[in-house]
Every structure is written in structure tokens, then in C-alpha cells.
Write a structure and sequence with these properties.
Blueprint (H helix, E strand, L loop, with lengths): L2 H30 L17 H10 L18 H10 L5 H21 L2 H7 L2 H17 L2 E2 L2 E16 L2 E13 L1 E3 L5 E4 L5 E12 L8 E7 L1
Antiparallel strand pairs: 1-4, 2-3, 3-6, 4-5, 6-7
């Protein structure tokens, strides 16, 4: 084989070697990089795969707290009720409402009967003085009331607030009352026991949360 033929064969071998290296080299570089999943986002981005988005949404904590609805409390006064409950761990709003109904009946009956001793225990000074003056006026006129509380239709917390340690809760009462007024001889001069009249009142009860006793007293009365 001549020198020229050897040189030509060497050139052909070198050319084939370069072609083979270029193909294998490219495949080797591609195999070094792990294959990307079908929905995988490119690196250096914040984009998530759809699967990750679904999982994140499923385990994301709920930020909306269900609103607790307590019977007898309007949303506008709920803050005041919660403040009182936080200051007095023994305060139970449902129990308070039931107790206020009992106090409403006791105060009315004591007023109608002229029972000043009971009114003194259940009312503050200003309210007691108002009841006492009305009783005195009846007594001076020789009149007697024979009223009956038929039923309490509704009792709703009208307002609530905490001023320092003094808690005040106003309750709006809707009640049916049969009213009768008699003269000194027992003759009926007004009203009727057969026809009940709807009465709407807003009574405010107060309590010093720092006091030892658990009793609330009536410290304001208004027409509702």
C-alpha cells in the first residue's frame, strides 16, 4: 500500500471517529440530565405542577371561623356579651336570659302588690324610688291593681357593655298582661282580666363583677 493510500485511509478514519464522538457525546450529555416529567415546570420558576396545586388546595387550613349564633343575641351587641363573658367566666348568656324573665315577673308582681321589700332587693335606688312613688300615689288614691302576667312572648338582649368591672345588659321584653284597677271598695274602674294587653319594655340589669354576690339588679326601665 502506498503512502498516499495510507494517508487517505487515515483521513477517513479520523472523519468517522469525529462523527461517532459527536453522536455519542450528545447522547451522553442528554443522559446526564434526568428526563423532565410531562407537566414539570422549568427550573428557576415558581410555577407548580397541577398535581401539587391540587394537594396544596386540599390541605390548606381554613381561615374562615364559623359564626356561632346564640339565641337571644343580636349581632350588634355580641361584642359586649363576649366582653362580659371574658371578664366573668361564670356568666352564661342563656342562663341570664332565663333569669331575667324570672326577675321581670317578680318585679312586676311586687310592684302590683305594693311589695316594697322585694323591690328594694331587686332594684337599684333610682328604679326603686320610681316604683315607690307610683305605689304611694295608688295608696293615696285608694286604688288597687289586680294585674296578671299572662306570658312572656319574647326576651331579647337589646344591648350589653362592660365599663371597668360594671356589666350592664339590657333585655327587651314582649309580654301579654291583663290589667285591672279597682277602687277602695273593690270595684273595677279600669282594665279587663279577659283582654290581655301587649307590653313592650326594655329593662337594664347591672352587676359589679368584682362583688362577691352573683346577683344582678334592675337599674333602668324604659318603654320598648
Amino acid at each position: 500500500m502506498g503512502i498516499i493510500e495510507i494517508v487517505i485511509l487515515a483521513m477517513v478514519a479520523a472523519f468517522l471517529g469525529l462523527r461517532l464522538y459527536s453522536v455519542l457525546g450528545q447522547r451522553a450529555e442528554q443522559e446526564e440530565e434526568p428526563p423532565r416529567a410531562r407537566f414539570e415546570a422549568p427550573e428557576h420558576t415558581n410555577e407548580r405542577k397541577p398535581e401539587e396545586q391540587r394537594v396544596t388546595a386540599a390541605v390548606a387550613p381554613q381561615t374562615v371561623v364559623p359564626k356561632v349564633v346564640v339565641p337571644g343575641i343580636a349581632p350588634a351587641v355580641e361584642i359586649g356579651v363576649r366582653e362580659i363573658a371574658a371578664a366573668d367566666r361564670g356568666f352564661d348568656i342563656l342562663g341570664f336570659l332565663e333569669g331575667s324573665k324570672g326577675a321581670y315577673a317578680m318585679v312586676l308582681e311586687a310592684f302590683w302588690e305594693g311589695d316594697r321589700e322585694t323591690l328594694r332587693q331587686l332594684c337599684d335606688d333610682d328604679v326603686y324610688e320610681g316604683f315607690d312613688a307610683a305605689i304611694s300615689a295608688r295608696e293615696a288614691a285608694g286604688e288597687v291593681v289586680d294585674n296578671k302576667l299572662i306570658r312572656i312572648e319574647d326576651a331579647l338582649i337589646h344591648s350589653a357593655d362592660l365599663d371597668g368591672r360594671m356589666a350592664r345588659v339590657a333585655v327587651r321584653f314582649v309580654a301579654d298582661i291583663a290589667t285591672v284597677t279597682r277602687d277602695k271598695d273593690g270595684n273595677m274602674i279600669g282594665g279587663s282580666l279577659d283582654d290581655a294587653v301587649e307590653s313592650r319594655d326594655i329593662w337594664t340589669f347591672s352587676r359589679d363583677l368584682g362583688a362577691a354576690g352573683p346577683d344582678w339588679i334592675l337599674d333602668e326601665t324604659d318603654a320598648g
